[in-house]
Design goal:
Elements lengths: L1 H13 L3 E3 L1 H7 L1 H15 L14 H14 L8 H12 L3 H21 L2 E3 L3 H37 L9 H12 L5 E8 L2 E9 L2 H4 L3 E3 L3 H9 L3 E3 L21 E8 L2 E9 L8 H47 L3 E6 L4 E4 L1 H7 L3 H4 L4 H4 L2 H17 L3 E7 L6 E10 L5 E10 L1 H27 L1 H15 L6 H31 L9 E4 H15 L5 E6 L3 E4 L1 H18 L6 E7 L3 E8 L25 H7 L6 H11 L3 E7 L3 E9 L9
Parallel strand pairs: 1-2, 15-17
Antiparallel strand pairs: 3-4, 3-8, 4-5, 6-7, 7-8, 9-10, 9-13, 11-12, 12-13, 14-16, 17-18, 18-20, 19-20
């Protein structure tokens, strides 16, 4: 071969071609060779999977190294450039064939450039160049293979560490242990995970591991925060003195190299991982590549662990919800069932199964028409279809089953997916037989109430009015002796009291049955109505003194009959509880927006414990009341003041009471001239 080279070189020299040393040629034409190589690499990768870049950062150094080996022979020591080049290709995803191919293309580009420049190597130069290039290729391929084997072994160990699906608490420590054992220069490593707005050291192995666990940082703080912000690997040469280090475990005396990489799941930032060394200022490229690769795999394992944890939690929540649902279905007296869109039973409780007459297990997977009574199929299937098609619920459908005395009420509601699709429907059935019987009883009670009110309002009032009219005629007779006249007066008093009692009972029934007191407001003079009412009361109580006084403008809109009823009840109360030898004073005073009515009597004050429930119906006298008051109370229903409060409230007014031994008892009623929001007619 050498003779051929010499002869070829001689021929070229005879023809005028230049003969150069290969090393000098490579140094002189480095840029052209690199451009040719880059074009060849692009053409080589047409149709192949896209690579991140052509990574030209090592090629100039490799060409310079090739020239040095050609100059100095095989004893020239190779630098770490081939190792770094191999690791960069491994990190970029190249396979071994692609690495060998790019060197073959480099060899071809050098020869083509020599031919294009009409420059031919001197005898032996080409052989030396080939040998030098082979040495570089061998070193690169060996480093590539060793690095890949190391990574594969480490990843296999990581896979073994995660095979039993460990929890999020133990998995990170296992992964870090594999890392530290795979790199001799690594003294410690840790995972710092994002938790809300903070960064927390959740796993650590090696030096200072116990002190590091649980330490929390702000997300933008120090070297760790810088790795997360840039989302790129970062290196520190002297961690113990670097001002960017804030983690106490990274500031240990003598700690040198620190290498941190972000943990990324797509665009989601999970945290960062770092490794430290006391012996190395900079981690080797194989160690850095190993750490990056293992960090990527660790990220995948962490994501899977989180997903498994969420899945387990979701499964536990679902099981708990199903258990609660089953317990609810079993304990509720309601019949409950769920059907799919084809009206097949998905779930049913015992109460619903009892209505159909089959076991719950017999329903599952069967259609509604197969299990329900024939009469129910025709009634409910159209309703089921409408609920599924429209998504509208159907409530309170009453039905009976032939041969069963019970009455049921059914409701149907759609079962929706999160995106509002209808999966099927849920049915609830309740036995309303008891309610139907209660409704019948209530209806009879209402009918009885109406009859009773009719008796009170009509049948009792008519004879009472006749008695009162007859007694009035008797009072006009001049032939009555004094005892007879007193007897007639007692008759008139009793009929008046009975009339008020009937009126109070009717009004009480109206308020308690929800109807409210009817109030017919009309223009009137308040003082005139009160004066007329007192005239009637004087007739029924001629032995008592009733004093009336009016002042101011007393015109407005009220119900005159109700005003008279209020005054009658208040005066009757004053006559009943006041001193018989002292007058009952009634005062009407017109003010700007209202008319104020006051009824005053002297006598025993109202007991303090009775004040809070003074206007309650059927209130009892306190045990300390005088005997004469107890006797009087037995003749009263205790509805008078209650009716007063209801009438005044219906007019939008209010009632106030002041009672003491020195000043007596005064009921003050405020009557607004127009209706306010406090009440309504």
């Amino acid at each position: 071969m050498l003779e051929t080279e010499s002869r070829t070189a001689g021929d070229k020299e005879a023809s005028g071609a230049r003969t150069l040393k290969a090393a000098a040629f490579l140094r002189a034409h480095q840029e052209e060779v690199l451009e040719d190589w880059q074009r060849a690499m692009r053409a080589f990768h047409v149709g192949h999977a896209a690579q991140p870049s052509w990574l030209l950062d090592h090629m100039p150094q490799l060409l310079n190294m090739l020239a040095d080996i050609i100059d100095h022979g095989p004893d020239e020591i190779l630098t770490t450039v081939p190792d770094e080049h191999a690791m960069s290709r491994l990190d970029a995803g190249f396979d071994l064939g692609q690495v060998a191919s790019e060197y073959a293309l480099l060899r071809k580009c050098i020869l083509h450039r020599m031919e294009a420049e009409a420059a031919y190597p001197a005898p032996g130069e080409l052989e030396r160049m080939e040998d030098a290039l082979d040495r570089i290729v061998t070193r690169t391929v060996t480093s590539f293979s060793q690095g890949r084997q190391r990574i594969l072994q480490a990843l296999d160990r990581m896979t073994q560490a995660a095979l039993d699906s460990p929890s999020m608490a133990s998995l990170p420590s296992r992964l870090l242990t594999v890392l530290v054992e795979s790199a001799l220069s690594v003294d410690s490593a840790a995972f710092v995970l994002v938790e809300g707005d903070a960064l927390v050291v959740r796993a650590a192995v090696g030096l200072g591991a116990d002190e590091a666990l649980g330490v929390s940082l702000e997300r933008e703080e120090g070297f760790v925060g810088e790795v997360l912000r840039q989302r790129q690997p970062l290196t520190l040469r002297s961690a113990s003195t670097d001002p960017r280090v804030v983690l106490p475990t990274l500031k240990q005396e003598g700690l040198r190299a620190v290498y941190g990489v972000p943990l990324l799941d797509g665009d989601q930032l999970l945290g960062m991982a770092y490794m430290c060394s006391r012996t190395a200022f900079v981690f080797s490229e194989p160690d850095a590549l190993l750490f990056r690769t293992m960090a990527q795999r660790a990220t995948a394992h962490l994501v899977q662990a989180r997903l498994r944890a969420r899945e387990r939690q979701a499964h536990a929540d679902a099981q708990r919800s199903l258990a609660q649902l089953d317990a609810l279905l079993a304990s509720t007296p309601l019949g409950i069932a769920q059907l799919d869109r084809e009206l097949r039973f998905v779930r049913i409780n015992q109460a619903m199964a009892d209505i159909d007459g089959h076991s719950p297990e017999a329903h599952l997977g069967r259609r509604f028409r197969e299990m329900a009574p024939v009469t129910a199929v025709g009634t409910f299937e159209p309703l089921f279809r409408r609920t599924i098609e429209t998504g509208e619920p159907v409530d309170a459908v009453e039905f009976t089953i032939p041969g069963d005395a019970r009455t049921f009420q059914a409701s149907f509601h759609p079962v929706r997916t999160p995106d509002q699709g209808v999966l099927g429907l849920s049915c609830t059935v309740v036995d309303v037989s008891h309610h139907k019987r209660a409704e019948a009883v209530l209806q009879r009670a209402v009918d009885f109430r109406e009859q009773l009110m009719a008796v009170l309002g009509h049948d009792l009032r008519n004879p009472l009015n006749a008695i009162n009219a007859s007694a009035f005629q008797l009072t006009r007779s001049e032939d009555l002796t004094p005892p007879e006249r007193r007897a007639v007066d007692r008759i008139r008093k009793a009929t008046a009291r009975m009339g008020r009692m009937i009126t109070d009972i009717l009004d009480f029934a109206r308020t308690r049955l929800g109807g409210g007191l009817p109030v017919a407001r009309q223009p009137m003079d308040f003082a005139e109505v009160c004066q007329a009412t007192l005239e009637e009361l004087r007739v029924s109580a001629p032995e008592r003194s009733l004093v009336f006084e009016a002042s101011g403008d007393t015109r407005g809109n009220w119900d005159p009959d109700r005003v008279s009823q209020v005054l009658g009840n208040l005066v009757a109360n004053a006559l009943q509880h006041g001193q018989e030898d002292r007058p009952v004073c009634v005062t009407v005073r017109g003010e700007a927006d209202e008319v104020v009515l006051k009824v005053h009597n002297t006598g025993e004050p109202i007991a303090p414990e009775l004040m809070p429930r003074l206007f309650d119906p059927f209130k009892n006298m306190p045990a300390t009341a005088p005997p004469q008051d107890v006797a009087r109370k037995k003749r009263s229903l205790g509805l008078g003041l209650y009716i007063v409060s209801q009438i005044v409230g219906a007019h939008g007014g209010r009632v106030e009471v002041r009672s003491n031994r020195d000043q007596g008892t005064t009921f003050t009623v405020h009557w607004p001239r127009t209706l306010t929001t406090l009440g309504g007619a």
